[in-house]
């Protein structure tokens, strides 16, 4: 499986010559046992995901519920151990980390922001508690006064003022949007390299979602933080992200620069996803054709494309061979036997050119 | 809308009295809401959480549980006032003429009985049917919503989220009602399932001719489906009119703000701001216009004068800028 070409040149790791991205995964796989220990049934939540996140980059991971996107976030946060595959942080495999100190360091570098701001803050403590704890744990160099200064700084960085007053409040005194900003402030206090944001705005009202997305963009610009933004809302993904990855039933089916993917979606699932987004600005036209079928439950899957039951373009090959990601346009890969490549995909190896005759990527 | 009106809501108000011992006063969750629903019409109700949209639905269906109570106004359904109706009489209307689809099908369906058994319960509670009739009707409604009738034997957990919502809608259609009230039926679904469910509702409406009141926080969702749109803020209707008019030329700053809060997947990428601040505390609503603390075009008298719904072309808007008397009375602002 060829790794997606990186749009942003990565820095060199101190250890080696190879330019290593901030975080990369190689064939990341997670299976869950279902139906008891001896049932032999495995739910394939994530299968062979190759993800690259560069410095100062916002990568959006889009997919429907059950597609495995939250599992990826939890794998990266070391909540789950991968069934197989490897996560490389700054070129170093996570499995090689030994001892509490190294793990703690990684957790400080790659914190997570959760979906539900109402249950992710401890209601019994003031807002300052969570931030201060993080500072104590991850920033030993700071003394008490510096810790408070730093807490004020991160609260202001996420757009909450007056910071000292906010720090003194209890979570119930804050609105949902403010609480979620505190979630980001807590993550920011660790001086992170990459924030894993798992549906950070889906519980918030539409009128305040944009504010949070703007906070993410600002943190990236001011604090040099990368984000993995997990969402089912492709419009908000477009709003903040540089690169877009689309997941379906545990597979990454398409990945590339956000604008390129949305302007010319190669995978039929991406096309379906895009056509389903309601757009009030578009003229009134209701296509009568409802999308058929449901996402599959991937328990002990057989080979083949997992989208083939719903795919309008499916050919015989789709039922026998699992399509691999292949370059179809500059930095733009998709896992589809049928999708056609651009006339000149710069990334070369157009190994499956023969399957182009199977059908045209019809516009949805 | 051409058809006769089947539901007339007039000055409906709901109050949650302040819980004993707390500092907060009574919460006016719904404040003098009025609108009509015509035969076969699709009415969209949008607003943020806490704006009173769900409370209003429950008030219309008389499903409010204490301490909330309807403190004023009327809900006239086919000539009868639902607010003052006795429970026994209400039972005859419910499900037969007016049914409700709840927000979360996972919680609204009984997890320990099959879908078919729940259909049977509903049918038997509101009419007399033989076992064969129950069976026949259940299969019919399952076919209507596009679920294989074998799933009548299934339990809710065996269905996917989209199928569960469809089953809920099938259940609401058991008696072919004239009005179906839907409280965010699609909010737990992803965009693809959401869109196909919306198309299905629209198609069923075309076949069976029922009217729909559809509550959602996602304004873009109803943009292509609803005939009339109600925008609620702080317990009040702030804008009401034909959906297309509200989308094309929103006349209330809040509607405009809501529309501008959605990033688009098409067209040029623009920086958005959303609406600053957060929804009002209804125990202590702001003086004057309830939107004034967050309003980008706020003026002097917005803080003191409470706006009414003013006619602006084919829509009505609760914004002082559209007050015909204002031009003469307030010159200070310019």
Please tell me about this protein's structure.
The complex is a heterodimer of chains A (364) and B (334). Chain A has 11 helices and 13 strands. Chain A has helices at 69-76, 99-109, 127-138, 144-157, 163-167, 176-189, 206-223, 234-240, 258-263, 268-276, 317-320, and strands at 23-34, 41-49, 52-53, 58-62, 84-89, 92-93, 112-113, 194-198, 226-231, 243-248, 251-257, 326-329, 332-334. In chain A, the strands form 2 sheets. An 8-stranded mixed β-sheet of chain A has the order 7-8-9-4-10-11-13-12, sandwiched between helices. In chain A, strands 1, 2, 3, 5 and 6 form a 5-stranded antiparallel β-sheet that branches. Mean pLDDT of chain A is 82; it is low at 1-16 and 347-364. Chain B is α/β, with parallel strands linked by helices and 334 residues long. Chain B has helices at 53-60, 87-93, 105-108, 115-126, 131-144, 161-172, 191-208, 219-222, 243-248, 253-260, 326-329, and strands spanning 5-16, 27-38, 42-46, 69-77, 80-81, 98-101, 179-183, 211-216, 228-233, 236-242, 310-312, 315-317. In chain B, a hairpin with a 2-residue loop joins strand 11 (310-312) and strand 12 (315-317). The interface between A and B is large, with 42 and 46 residues. Chain B: It holds the Pfam family ABC_tran. Chain B: This is Peptide ABC transporter ATP-binding protein. Chain B: Residues 39-236 form the AAA+ ATPase domain.
User: Overall mean pLDDT score of chain A?
Assistant: 82
Helix content range of chain A: 25-40%
| Strand numbers in spatial order across the main sheet of chain B | 6-7-8-3-9-10-12-11
**CA distance, first residue to last residue of chain B:** 39 Å
Radius of gyration of chain A: 22 Å
What characterizes the major β-sheet of chain B?
A: 8 strands, mixed
Strand element count of chain B: 12
C-alpha geometry of chain A: globular
Record field, number of beta strands of chain A:
13
Binned, the helix content of chain B reads 25-40%
CATH topology of the largest domain in chain B: Rossmann fold
Low-confidence stretches of chain B: 328-334
Compute the number of structural domains of chain B: 2
Count up the helices of chain A: 11
